[in-house]
Amino acid sequence: DLINKLVPNILGMLERLFTYLKVRQSFIYLILLLLFTLNNRADILDSINKQLQKTQDSLKIDRILSSANELININNDSSLLYARTAFTLAEQQKNPQKKVLATILIGKALYTKGDYNSAIEEIDRAYKMSISINDSIHLIDVFQVYSLIYSKLGDFKKALDYSQQAFNLVGMLNQQEKLADLVRETGNIYFSF
User: Fold this and answer.
1) Most buried residue, 5, 25, 34, 69, by CB count within 10 Å?
2) Can you tell me the distance from the alpha carbon of 75 to that of 43, in angstroms, rounded to the nearest whole number?
3) Cβ atoms within 10 Å of 106's Cβ, excluding its own
4) Alpha-carbon distance 84 to 98, whole Å?
């Protein structure tokens, strides 16, 4: 009779112990994954910085813009720094297309960071610059980022309007390589509705 009373208590204690160990094991795995991810981020930044140091000045702005774009979802602060650096270089080189692209990347990085008001301000600047130099290619990107921002803000009608404007330009300018991202992002807007 005593054994019948002790067995459920012992089993309960063992079950709680195993649950505790599993949670603890999961926590350790999470910490290891986080440390690995942070280490990889540092490696990526080091690699990018080394490549930039080796790059000729004439190609440097392209590499910086490319790096800013690649880092948007990995290290937002570095992406913002690279995009702002590219903007300054584009201004010095009097290259309006690169200036527009840098501004778009600044806006996109701010959007990814969750700073939607600042992102809208940057994308507004990119829109005005694109219009002033008659750069329809970058307007596609401008409309895409507007669409992303307004989707996050819950203004789905505005997000869809901007998405439609991007679709129209993709068709007019035959920019099919931008179509897959645009379709995915528009699908996400409808999904969020």
Assistant:
1) 69
2) 12
3) 25
4) 11
Q: Tell me, what's the pLDDT at 125? A: 98
Q: How confident is the model at residue 31 (pLDDT cuts 50, 70, 90)?
A: very low
pLDDT of residue 19: 54
Find out whether 31 and 65 touch, Cβ atoms under 8 Å. no
Q: What does the alpha-carbon distance between residue 51 and residue 70 come to, in Å, rounded to a whole number?
A: 14
Separation CA 77–CA 113 (nearest Å): 9
Determine whether 134 is exposed, middle or buried from the number of CB atoms within 10 Å of its CB (0-12, 13-18, 19+). Answer: exposed
Q: CB-based contacts of 26: which residues, under 8 Å, 6+ apart?
A: none
Q: Examine the pLDDT at 55 and tell me if it is beyond 90.
A: no
CA 115 to chain centre: 12
Band of pLDDT at residue 58, cut at 50, 70 and 90: low
Q: With contact defined as beta carbons under 8 Å apart, do 152 and 108 qualify?
A: no
Separation of alpha carbons 134 and 161, rounded Å: 21
The answer to whether 114 and 151 are in contact (CB under 8 A) is: no
- For residues 101 and 95, give the distance between their C-alpha atoms in angstroms, rounded to a whole number: 10
**DSSP-based three-state secondary structure for 133:** coil
